[in-house]
Design a protein that fits this description.
314 residues; alpha+beta; Alpha-Beta Plaits; five-stranded antiparallel sheet; 8 helices; 5 strands; 44% helix
């Protein structure tokens, strides 16, 4: 089945395709209205060396040791645990959140991300998550009885950003709804075409173009039969003249009489005119004893002229 046939089937079964496409459009609009928009807010914090460790140069950013990256990873895992999730929920953070090491980070940097459907709740939840992360870092070191001047500190690099809408998931739902509706519409269209063809008997089945137009091809559209073989006497009934046909009296391919036949017809007409003139002068009319029956004769194939010998043959 080529594209032209597919297009013709779609045109013939439009009463199945059009409602399907309308239903698909309604389903797509419904998905756009019903699927909520998701918002996301992100902030960045960094691990700093202790006050005691930064006494040498007085700048904690110059003393970021590799051990701080390991501490950042440990802190992120603790914040993402179920126990921490329960504590955050008790503090009012019901949205989805995540704490992880920043991508392509050159130091102990943490990304704190909160995602939800309420814009204001997402922003407030990110602030709550930042405070909880700083408190969790202090609690982990306090459990190990670390002196306050030797504790690792945390600082804010990027404050909580204004929540931005995330349309990726919504667009995915829309594409899925539209694709499913179009596929079901096409399946229904071709299923209706298959059932219609299955109900039509094979001997009464017409060409798709003829079935669409609703009329059978006329006589002028039918192919003309091709004549084969020599003409028979029955086929020459319309071309018989008053005289008997001889081998050369057969009509030509266009249905006209040959030259000998036309000469004989003119001769018969001249003889008839003379006989009528004799009867008009008072001559007794001669009645034939018996009626003459003229039978058609099969045409004889024309004799081909003998081939002339070549000029070089003597």
């Amino acid at each position: 089945m080529d594209l032209a046939e597919i297009f013709r089937v779609m045109c013939r079964r439009w009463y199945v395709l059009v409602p399907g496409l309308l239903l698909t459009a309604g389903l797509t609009v419904g998905a756009w209205l019903l699927v909520p928009v998701s918002y996301e807010s992100q902030s960045t914090v960094a691990m700093l060396n202790s006050r005691k460790g930064a006494e040498a140069d007085g700048n904690p950013f110059l003393s970021m040791e590799p051990s701080l990256t390991g501490m950042a990873d440990s802190l992120a895992r603790n914040v993402n645990s179920d126990a921490s999730a329960a504590e955050l929920k008790a503090q009012g953070l019901t949205e989805k959140y995540e704490a992880k090491i920043a991508d392509n980070a050159q130091g102990p940097l943490l990304w704190l991300t909160v995602t939800g459907e309420d814009r204001d709740a997402v922003l407030q939840g990110n602030k709550t998550l930042m405070a909880f992360t700083a408190q969790r870092l202090e609690d982990l070191q306090a459990e190990q009885k670390v002196a306050p001047e030797s504790m690792i500190r945390i600082t804010t690099i990027v404050p909580p950003q204004d929540p931005e809408p995330k349309l990726k998931s919504k667009v995915q739902y829309l594409v899925m709804a539209a694709g499913l509706g179009i596929v079901l519409s096409l399946v229904g269209t071709f299923f209706a075409e298959a059932r219609r063809r299955g109900r039509t008997p094979r001997k009464h089945r017409q060409d798709p173009d003829t079935e669409r137009s609703g009329s059978a091809p006329g006589p002028e559209e039918r192919p003309a039969p091709v004549a084969a073989g020599p003409a028979r006497p029955a086929d020459l009934g319309g071309h018989l003249t008053d005289g008997l046909l001889t081998g050369t009296d057969a009509p030509d391919a266009q249905g006209s009489r040959t030259a000998p036949e036309r000469d004989r017809s003119e001769r018969d007409r001249s003889e008839g005119d003379r006989s009528e003139g004799d009867r008009s002068e008072g001559a007794p009319e001669q009645q034939p004893d018996q009626p003459t029956v003229q039978l058609p004769v099969l045409p004889v194939a024309e004799r081909r002229p003998a081939k002339r010998p070549p000029s070089w043959v003597k």
